[in-house]
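Weekly puzzle thread! Below is a chain. First person to post its structure in token form gets bragging rights.
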Amino acid sequence: MNLPLWKRIGLNRLMKSESEELLMIIQKRMDYMWKRRRSLFFLIFYIVWALKEVIFRDHHDATFALIFVKIVIWIIPVFLFLRYLECNHKPFSYLKLNTNIRRGILWGSIVSLLLILIEGTLITVTHTRFNLDLGWRWITTFVFALPEEVLFRGFILRGLNDSIGFKKANIITAVLFVSIHFPVWFIQGIVLPKLVFNIIVVFIVGVALGYLFKRTNSLWSATIVHTVYNLLIYTRSV
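Winning reply:
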């Protein structure tokens, strides 16, 4: 049956509207499933890592075993999640491990140099003692920082940024970054007011690393600065 032109236009608009509503419903459903999967992933990760920190405490004579454990718990699950549960993602590209490498290294080096200059000035002014005899920590600190950046900046921040925007995503990521330190602080017996100080400092560091990651679009910038920051902390542990 031939319909008048105005009826055909109205029918096409109706079908288009229904198609858009269906796509919106599907998209909301997919977003819900995506958030649920990632939330469950982080919850399981947090429980596993917290148990590891509490039950199997770090020992300096087992450095390479700790590196292996951190790679197994922090990096491999993220790669498997992106590769097999979110099949449209290539892990290295998604985590910004193979993009803007030179830019990431350059900015990471510049910011790290500024941190070193600030630390050197504070040591000179306050006559604080420091220790450069860090042994294997000169190397292993980078290996420990990389998995944390893979999880928090590369995986969590990147995912939240796509969902809720950078500012909110960066704050949430920084809060989660603080939370992963609680098991260690618990073991070390850190209490108020030092606990509050640690929370504030780690939160600020997390936010700053997030902005650096966004600025360079490379995970290497945040990893380098994270490494140098931790090394500076170790040099003060005399």
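Puzzle host: Confirmed. Bonus trivia for everyone else. Residues 5-55 form the longest helix (51 residues).
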